[in-house]
Design a protein that fits this description.
The structure holds two protein chains of two kinds.
Chain A: E1 3-6, E2 10-13, E3 18-22, H1 34-42, E4 50-56, E5 64-70, E6 76-80
Antiparallel strand pairs in A: 1-2, 3-4, 4-5, 5-6
Chain B: E1 15-17, E2 24-30, E3 33-38, H1 44-54, E4 65-67, E5 71-77, E6 80-85, H2 94-103, E7 107-110, E8 115-122, H3 125-130, E9 146-152, E10 155-161, E11 168-173, H4 177-188, E12 193-195, E13 199-200
Parallel strand pairs in B: 2-12, 2-13
Antiparallel strand pairs in B: 1-12, 2-8, 3-6, 3-7, 4-5, 5-6, 8-11, 9-10, 10-11
The chains are: A mainly beta, B alpha+beta.
């Protein structure tokens, strides 16, 4: 079980949350080549170690949040609102 | 109070169920009106409009509630609150209130029929809640006047303590009422429980 610190509600059980994918993706500009869009839509890294992710507090305040999770240990290292940067920049 | 058949765990008829006789009480807390307020918490005009309509100050701190005359406001999220009244007269006309909140930049939804509330009271209440919910119901973490949204089993639920623990009220979608009531009764059966007649929310 993971305890995820929601920036609004405080630490809550993982079962209240829904995983929302990679939080480090940058949306390409509308006129970007099709390769850039293909990469944005379909291709994902599989990092070993700290990874920034989006989670939705679906059974709580229904807000999205950023979570930095260590993919090896499942340690939750930090969390932040979607419009705020996680401490220490990108992993 | 009449002695109910202890084998009909899950019945809503008032009476005592289960073989043991612990002081544990379950009942429905009736809701007449429930309005969902959406909007910018930083908007002074929205806060003032809700204060005029519901005669209470919206709770801005997470997981907190506030009370007015017959109305309780529960924090659902940083831009969402639930106004609950046991008496329909406490909140008045919906259409007028919605137009006023809209004019103040917010949104108001009538969700009176969406939720049912169950109140659990008695020393084992926290254990009954914890049987289906991952929240910490210790009074140090969840005191009077606080609310939390979480799950009971797999059902999204809103928990509210309007009095000092162990009392706790749980609001769930009405479509899950039967399922949640059975879950509560099943969790309470080993220590025995008493179903009381429905009483107003708050």
């Amino acid at each position: 079980m993971l305890l995820i610190p929601c920036p609004w509600c405080g630490s809550r059980n993982q079962v209240e949350f829904t995983y929302g994918g990679d939080a480090t993706l940058k949306r390409p500009p509308p006129d970007a080549p099709v390769e850039a869009w293909y990469e944005f839509v379909y291709l994902r890294d599989n990092p070993c170690g700290p990874h920034d992710e989006l989670w939705l507090h679906s059974a709580g305040c229904r807000r999205w949040l950023k979570v930095r999770r260590d993919t090896r240990t499942h340690d939750i290292l930090a969390s932040a609102r979607p419009d705020q940067a996680l401490p220490g920049g990108e992993p | 109070m009449s002695e109910a058949d202890p084998t009909t765990i899950g019945s809503t008829a008032p009476g005592h169920y289960g073989s043991a006789s612990t002081a544990l009480f379950l009942r429905e807390a009736t809701i007449a009106t429930a309005w969902n307020v959406h909007g910018d918490a930083g908007s002074a005009s929205l806060r003032a409009e809700v204060q005029r309509i519901a005669r209470l100050v919206l709770p801005m701190a997470a997981n907190t509630t506030s009370k007015g005359e017959g109305v309780t406001a529960l924090w659902l999220g940083p831009q969402s609150w639930l106004l609950v009244a046991a008496d329909a007269a406490a909140l008045g006309d919906f259409a007028g209130a919605r137009d006023a909140v809209n004019a103040a930049g917010g949104a108001l939804f009538d969700v009176s029929a969406s939720r049912i509330a169950y109140a659990v009271d008695g020393a084992p209440a926290a254990a009954i809640m914890a049987a289906g919910c991952p929240l910490d119901f210790h009074p140090r973490h969840f005191g009077a006047g606080q609310c939390r949204q979480s799950l009971y089993g797999r059902v999204p639920a809103l928990f509210y303590r309007h009095r000092e623990p162990p009392d706790c009220t749980m609001l769930v979608a009405r479509s899950f009422a039967h399922d949640v009531w059975r879950s509560l009764c099943t969790a309470a059966a080993p220590c025995g429980y008493t179903v009381r007649a429905a009483a107003p929310f708050g």
